[in-house]
Amino acid sequence: MESHNSSLLWVLMIIFVSTINISFVHGLGVNWGTRATHPLPPNIAVKLMKDNGFNKVKLFEAEGWALDALKNSGIQVMLGIPNDLLGSLASGVTVAENWVAKNVSAYVSRGVDIRYVAVGNEPFLKTYKDMFTNTTLPALKNIQAALIKAGLGRQVKVTVPLNADVYESSSGVPSEGNFRADIHDLMISIVKFLSDNMAPLTINIYPFLSLYADPHFPIDFAFFAGTNAPVMDGSVSYTNVFDANYDTLVWALEKNGFSSMPIIVGEIGWPTDGDLNANIQYARKFNQGLLSRINQGQGTPKRKTLSDIYFFGLIDEDAKSIDPGNFERHWGIFNYDGTVKYKLDLGKNQTLVPAKGVQYLPRQWCVMAPRASETDPNLADSIKYACTYADCTSLGFGSTCGGLDARNNASYAFNRYFQTFNQQKSACNFNNLSVITKTQPTTGKANCKYEIMIDVGKHQKARSPGTSAAADAEAGKSFGCFVMAVFLLISLVA
Predict the structure, then answer these.
(1) What's the average model confidence in pLDDT over 421-449?
(2) Cα torsion angle, 221, 306, 481, 253, sign
(3) Is 419 left (phi over 0), alpha (psi -120 to 50) or beta?
(4) How does DSSP classify residue 328?
(5) Lowest mean pLDDT: which of 15-24, 162-171, 437-446?
(6) Residue 167: CA count within 13 A, CB half-sphere
(7) Hey, which residues does 116 pair with through a beta bridge?
(8) What totals of helices (H) and strands (E) does the chain contain, helices first?
(9) Within a 10 A sphere around the Cβ of 241, how many other Cβ atoms?
């Protein structure tokens, strides 16, 4: 009897410990964007995630090649639905059932660990001018019904990734937070539906955009190292914009009867190029500060428990929309080819490791011909043409390749075009101003390099970038998305 009781005690202890682990040990999440002319092969991208401790991934749409690579990987998946599908999904549950059967059930049965379906992406951005206001909730309900019919209602939860501009504070302090007046009733309906179905609310928070939108924003408030001028909310001191922004949402939920609503941070990060404040030093500082908090299990003043957090993003994407700004193509923790941009301490003596097995195009470059003149009347138009069809965002003011001399500026543009079009001989023909060289050129700037693209032809399951509206959905980071940060700035100045 004593032996039996001891065995039972051990079983109960194991269950108890396991429950604690499930409750308090959080995995590391990352967004895997795929808007690239020469994408990192999916099997290599998945291995890159696993090697660096990312066991949760958010995809912006159901792309079969990516889902296939995630089979039996041990990585939990949040599967996105682009905004341009919301209308059809809202039109009837049959459309949703077909979508779930094709994109969820089919892959779950083949070993893809899909945990969430993200219905839309920041659909209530003011820049969308109510385009998705009437379709988001019906689409959400139809997807939920389809998941239940497919027998996946317990395993797969629905959510809606929202921009931080869906809530605001009239006085600039978190305790005054509430949902935006024009969508208040809709937000309550969405939150109630999610709560009734034991599903989380997902929010995207970007302190970088506070700085981008207002050059006078106090820069130290964007990071996690503290500030000499904290925002005081009663007795609570806010030393960084993330805590203040997140707690504004918590207050908004609490005021409307949802104090225990689970929250996922669906996107957060810092770009490394395309703007004066988008640089490696700031990106490392921000992401390291965030990682340290995750490793320490540190929440916010209003919520001590840790949310699931998905870093944005895994790799750079040279084919993303740059409507919000040139920085949109440079959010990756890793470069386009999976090489490490900067050192990050992941905890437990682990640091970032690069992708393995990447194959590149031949070591050759397209540069401005030695005999070509910088005063050639065709030079400006040639550079403009190259940058129209290739990514030249690194050439902008304050960027890694900004301020190059005329020859290097032209050579950089020519080479980007040449590499983007797979080093075809005809892709280095700019009015007799260019030449192909096998001698590696240098720009004279440490972080500005003449890159060679991935050879997608040498990788199985290679693909070219899609053209669906998911690209715009993913890139839709409005300049005004950090309304809360502006309120906080007013408080600081006051």
Answers:
(1) 96
(2) negative
(3) alpha
(4) G
(5) 15-24
(6) 31
(7) 78, 157
(8) 15, 17
(9) 29
Q: Quick one: pLDDT band at residue 454, thresholds 50, 70, 90?
A: very high
Catalytic site includes residue 328: no
- In the three-class reduction of DSSP (H, G, I as helix; E, B as strand; rest coil), residue 452 is classed as coil
| Prior bond of 313 cis (ω within 30°) | yes
Count of positions (residues) in the chain: 494
Token pair of 443 as six digits: 């720009």
Distance, CA of 268 to CA of 290 (rounded, Å): 9
Give the distance, in angstroms, between the CA of residue 389 and the centroid of all CA atoms in the same chain.
24
Catalytic residue among 267, 317, 328, 474: 267
* Structural domain spans, the chain: 26-356+469-493, 365-453
Beta-strand runs (E) in 69-151: 76-81, 113-119
Write down the pTM of the prediction: 0.88
| DSSP calls for 333-344 | SB-TTS-BSS--
Alpha-carbon dihedral 390, 212, 344, 463, rounded to 10 degrees: -30
> DSSP string covering 5-39, please?
HHHHHHHHHHHHHHHHHHHH---EEEE-----SSP
Percent of the chain with pLDDT over 70: 88
Catalytic annotation present for 176: no
Strands 345-347 and 350-351 come out as: antiparallel
- In the structure encoding, which two tokens stand for residue 219, read together? 């820069």
Question: pLDDT tens across 327-376, in order?
Answer: 999 999 999 999 999 999 998 889 999 999 999 999 999 999 999 999 99
Reading the block at residue 257, the tokens are 């009867």
pLDDT-wise least confident of 169-183, 225-239, 393-407, 463-477: 463-477
CB 392 within 8 Å of CB 412: yes
- Quick one: 26-356+469-493 is in which CATH superfamily? Glycosidases (3.20.20.80)
Give residue-wise pLDDT tens across range 143-192.
999 999 999 999 999 999 999 999 999 999 999 999 999 999 999 999 99
Q: Are 265 and 58 a contacting pair, CB within 8 Å?
A: no
Dist CA 81 CA 313 (whole Å):
18
Reported as a single tens digit per residue, the pLDDT across 301-329 is: 999 988 899 999 999 999 999 999 999 99
Buried b (16+ CB within 10 A) or exposed e, 160-175: bbbbbbbbbbeebbbb
Marked catalytic residue, from 122, 168, 317, 474:
122
CB atoms closer than 10 angstroms to residue 359: 13
User: Where do we find the tokens 């609310």?
Assistant: 201
For residues 305 and 118, what is the distance between their CA atoms, to the nearest angstrom? 23
